[in-house]
Amino acid sequence: MNFICTRKKLQEAVNSVSKAISNNPIMPVLGNIYIKVKDSQIIFRGYDLEIGIEHVEDAEVKEEGEVLVNSRLFSDIVRSLGEEEVEIFTEENKLVIISGNAIFNIRWLDTAAFPKLPDVEKDNKVTIKTEYLKNMIRNTIFSVSTNEQRLILTGALFESEENCFKMITLDSFRMSIRKEYILGNEELFKFVIPGKTLNELLKLITNDDEEIRIYYESTQVMFEFGNCKFISKLLQGDYFNYKAIIPKEFITKIEVNVNEFREIIERNMLVSDDGRKAPLILEINENILTANTQGEAGNVTETLYIKKEGKDMRIGFNAKYLLDAIKSINEEKVRISFMGETNACILTPQNSDEFLYLILPVRIAS
Amino acid sequence: MSGKIIILDEFTSNQIAAGEVVERPASVLKELIENSIDAGADRIEIEIKNGGIGYIKVSDNGKGIEQEDIPMAFERHGTSKIRQISDLSNITTMGFRGEALPSIASVSNVTLTTRTSENEYAVKAVFEALQLKSITKAARAPGTTVEVRNLFFNTPARYKFLKGDIQETRYCTDIVLRLALANTHAAFIMICNNEEVIRTNGDSELINSIYGVYGRDIANDIIKVNAQSEGFSVSGYIGKPFASRGNRQHQSLFVNNRYVKYPELNISIERAYETRIMKGKFPFYVLKLDIPAQNLDVNVHPAKTEVKISNISDIFGKLNFIIKEALDKEQEVFVPSSIKPTYIKSEEKKEEKNTIIDFNDQLSKFSEEVHQIQQNSNIFNEQKTEYKEQTKDNAVNTGKFDKENIIKNEYDIKPYKIAGQIFNTYIIIDKNEYIYIVDQHAAHEKMVYELLKKDYENRTVISQQIMVPIEVVITSTEMQFISQNSEFIRRVGFDYSEFGKNSILIREIPSTINECDIKDAFKAMLDDMQNERKDKVHTALYSLACKAAVKANKKLDEKQMQYIFENLMKLDNPFTCPHGRPTMIKMTKYDFDKFFKRIV
Question: How far is CA A337 from CA A116, A323, A344, B390, B538, in A?
């Protein structure tokens, strides 16, 4: 194997694939980066048996071949190099890396032991702009369940509905639904992607302005964008029937300014962040919303002028759940609909139905 | 000169129920020492041989007995301590029944040598099975010596029931040390088989007596208690929680200076230690209660180790509070007393190098190994590996910690630095000249427990509703149990409804534990509550806290570690988990310097 490549390209490739390489791999061989040189391309791969990443870069190829190198060492070396071109070649059991006046000799291993990345059929495809996908993930990932007891809820549901691409996550206390009207009528899909995969994907997408192709099978999914292929297992099982829990009728509806409300929540959290999770209590009285937290360290009360329909009411929440939701809304106003003091409430932007957040309240000891 | 001893009238003597006074050598010792104390002695020497079966000698420097009183002292109910039954309610002496000497003398050979300060010589009387064999003049300083030989020689049944010498010696030592603790104004010296086993100096300082009786280690680990309350006062010392023992041998309770066994008071004291010591461990204590004589009945049993207190329920609560308060004031981080550094042998290292062939493997584990080499093997491994070069100076190898380095009440914990996490289980806190090693599970568990408990007690529980009700399948017995305890379960913060015969649906959970596996936690709580009869609340909250707390072997980021540590330190008693295990240990820079022999 022998090729010459710029440091920048090497760096990009290593950054990508190392996201699929664990620091503590189950099998030692998975702590390696797979490098294959063929035609005029270098293919880098990382795989931790859950997710796999393949990154392709152009290079000046002198001799084809394939090796495994220790991921951490190779990454550190690449990061340390100057901006010169880098020449890499094998010499017996040594991998020689030359850049400027620096010459590294490191060990390489035979590739036979490295597991093959799964093949994903390209029969079923959805295409979406990276920017949209990233936003959808960001707006929902926080309510993915962390409780492994119901494994299916540790993932996000990707679902098509008419011409809309939907992402749903829910844990026991709240639910996030995000929609983008980007589909034609022909695409029909429903699968659940592990939350961990989505977190890595977020980090991997660096260019907001390109198409990402999502290929899915019954057990796995592949994202293809830029120089990257990102393969992940899917979670198996029936997702929770989330539509059934969305209330349709409300006794109180209010409209508040998103930024003002966010700041109020953040100020309230200053006194509730003490382990006991003192609830944020909202009191709606005529057109005044009073937010109050009685924490161990102190308390805070703040009022806000609002638009209201329906009855006055008093309700308590875990402030963090409200904050996660409100942060994701980038319109000026949010509409909050209540069904009663012990029932779920729903947050939606004033002018669109692209977001829907459902949060369950806490019972306030009287 | 008139005699001091009279025979009780029949009415009085019948009031005092007859009983067994002499059961074993230890009871002989007890009676004799109490006589010495009643005689005003401030120096008492005790000598026993063969567990006291062969020989017991008690000498004192008390006021002695007049010659003409000697025969009377050996008559049943011969006493100088009370005159009539009404005196019983105001007893200030240890003895009063007039049974001890005759009882002892009837089952052994007793030699009594005594001199009062008024007399110029001592009298020596020899009894064999209560028969006076001789009275002769002898030489002795003022005071009394009683020697008892061949105990139970004429009662083979009793003799048969004695345990071996070693066991009897233990009973004897036990009784002497308790009397020594009760009577700090008298110096006690006890010699067993020609070896001194107890010496107290009689300076009226209880701490010095504890030192003399139990040794230095425990004397460093005790807390002084001194409190007055309506109806009683208490003084003495209690052991720090981590100095607790595997049995109740090291508990001494004195009521009006009399060693007693009083289960209710014992429970009251041990309850105060709850959550501070582990199950199956018992606190050390030497406590003296003073109770007005009219509230106290000591005439329950001839051995007088049982008394009755009329306002016991009142004292129970107050005593518990006093002990708790004393413990709260003296909180400390557990300092391991005997960690020995184990040094890595150079051969071991070489071996490792040779065996690791897989280059990649080595690299990937590199940082862990460095960690282990630095942290683990040296300090935490209690297994001794041989030193490669055994140092001649053995003193260096002990690696014992200096108890003086214990810090107290360190609520003001800042500034500190989180140095990291080891074994994914312990958090290392760097605080200038020392480090804390925090058990992440125990610490978090303690924190959650206290939050749950506080909310439970103040009825301020916040219940978080859950989206999908959690179904818990249970047996019909458990269902019954749940219905019986439904009020409690709701007060903890759960809301549920019955769902068919054998399952319930949980709809709300305490918001403090919203990140754990609810089904698991709820079941654990049920199980533990059913197994526990005494304190269901504590048990239930504890098992919830245990399930909700971060587990061992879990990687934490710095924020989480900081969260656990800081919230833990806000608690009243941060240093032990709800079951009494330590949440953290402390080591000083000095210890490390010693391990690495910077300081020899």
Answer: 51, 16, 9, 77, 40
**E strand or H helix at B153:** none
Angle B466-B470-B471 (CA atoms, 0-180°, nearest 5)?
155
User: Environment class of residue A251 by beta-carbon count within 10 Å: exposed (0-12), middle (13-18) or buried (19+)?
Assistant: middle
Q: Write phi, then psi, for B516 (nearest 5 degrees).
A: -105, 175
According to DSSP H, which parts of chain A are helical? Answer: 7-18, 71-80, 130-140, 195-204, 258-272, 319-327
**Using an 8 Å Cβ cutoff, are B352 and B344 in contact?**
no
Interface of B with A (CB under 8 A): 358-361, 363-364, 447-448, 451, 454-455, 459-468, 470, 495, 508, 511-512, 514-520, 563, 567, 570
Candidates A362, A364, A366: best to mutate against B (most CBs of B within 10 A) is A362
* Cross-strand bridge partners of residue B586: B436
- Closest C-alpha to B488, from B445, B536, B447: B536
User: Model confidence at A2, in pLDDT bands (50, 70, 90)?
Assistant: very high
- Report residue B347's pLDDT band, with 50, 70 and 90 as the boundaries: very low
Q: Where are the alpha helices (DSSP H) in B330-427?
A: 346-355, 359-364, 366-371
Maximum mean pLDDT: which of A198-212, B208-222, B565-579: A198-212
Q: Which of A213, A243, A273 is the last residue of a domain?
A: A243
**Number of residues written out for chain B:** 600
Q: Which helix (H) or strand (E) holds A143?
A: none
Mean pLDDT throughout A13-34?
Answer: 89
Cα torsion B275, B279, B282, B287: sign = positive
- Mean pLDDT score, A166-192: 88
Residue B543 to residue B525: CA distance in whole angstroms: 5
Residue A96 maps to which CATH number? Answer: 3.10.150.10
Fold of B213-329: Ribosomal Protein S5; domain 2 (3.30.230)
Residues of A whose CB is below 8 A from B518: 172
Residue B341: the pLDDT is 52
Residue B364: is its pLDDT beyond 60? no
Interface test with B, best of A150, A154, A276, A338 (most B CBs within 10 A): A276
For chain B, which residues make up each domain, given as ranges?
A: 10-200, 213-329, 393-586
> Contact A282/A315 with Cβ under 8 angstroms?
yes
Question: Do the beta carbons of residue A235 and residue A151 sit within 8 Å?
Answer: yes
What CATH superfamily is the domain B393-586?
MutL, C-terminal domain, dimerisation subdomain (3.30.1540.20)
Range scoring the smallest mean pLDDT among A87-101, A203-217, B8-22, B413-427: B8-22
Domain B10-200, CATH among 3.30.70.20, 3.30.565.10, 3.40.50.12100, 3.40.440.10: 3.30.565.10
What's the token pair of residue A294? 């009685």
Number of structural domains (chain A) is: 3
Residue in B462, B517, B570 closest to A149 by CB = B517
CA–CA distance, B241 with B331 (Å, rounded to integer): 9
The boundaries of the domain holding residue A61 are 2-107
Would the CA dihedral through B138, B141, B142, B146 be positive or negative?
A: negative
pLDDT tens track for A238-262: 998 999 889 888 999 999 999 999 9
- Alpha carbon of B517: minimum distance to chain A alpha carbons (Å): 7
Query: What's the ipTM?
Result: 0.72
**Higher pLDDT pick, B375 / A263:** A263
Bridge partners (DSSP) of residue B109 are B128, B149
**Segment A195-222, tens digit of pLDDT:** 999 999 999 998 888 999 999 999 999 9
Nearest to B461 among A29, A275, A365 (CB): A365
